[in-house]
Amino acid sequence: PEVRLAVVETLGKLGGEEVLHPLVKAMGDHNDEVRHLAKEKLTAQRVRAIAPLLSLALDAKIDTEVRIDAIACLSEIKLDEVTKHLESLAAHEDHHVRTAALLGLGHSQKKTSISTIEQALHDYRDEVRRACAMTLASYPGEEAYEPLVKALQDNNRDVRRAAIESLLKVGVANVNDTLLKTLADKDWEVRRTGTLALGRLFDASIVPH
Fold it and tell me: What average pLDDT does range 182-193 have in this prediction?
């Protein structure tokens, strides 16, 4: 892969419209290093990279991992235009795309309406609802609190565990009481996550400021 790595590195230095297609092609390389470098160089193209990355994300014929990587690259381009595309992808028919788009929205510079994120809590796929719970962590305050409390009632334990982790980050006053209730969860892993979360809150409260 050394030669292909060198080619991708050179393409990244050159920049411009003419390097987009070969960089997109390199994102499907069988070597992890080549793919990672191609993602890095393509993301650095910023506005020019949006259209080809979006095409990759929407192409059902290519490998799912490449589509997910394309969405991750999009989320690194901190522009309002990208947020709109991620919102659209969050409603895509493919659950892999929906999941990646929701996680990408958590990294977006411009926050989408929390109602767009909250809708995903009703998705029939567990991984999409989990991604929703994780993304809600990037919306500090009361607006994320209620959706996360709802997520604690999800029938999937990984969704509930993700909601616990996100509750630690939203910064609401009554989070202790909410987390205490998770200690009665029917699943031991959820109870363990809740216990660890409470411990982290306690540790943070005794650190001198």
Answer: 96
Give which of 166, 163, 120 is closest to 139, Cα–Cα: 166
Q: Region of 193 please: left (phi>0), alpha (psi -120 to 50) or beta.
A: alpha
Rg (CA), the chain: 20
Task: For residues 57 and 46, give the distance between their C-alpha atoms in angstroms, rounded to a whole number.
Answer: 16
d(CA 2, CA 106) in angstroms, rounded, equals 34
pTM for the full predicted model: 0.86
pLDDT digits (tens, 9 = 90+) for 79-128: 888 889 999 999 999 999 999 999 999 887 566 778 888 899 999 999 99
First to last CA, the chain: 50
pLDDT tens per residue across span 114-166: 888 889 999 999 999 999 999 999 887 788 899 999 999 999 999 999 999 99
Vertex 20: Cα angle to 18 and 22 (nearest 5): 90
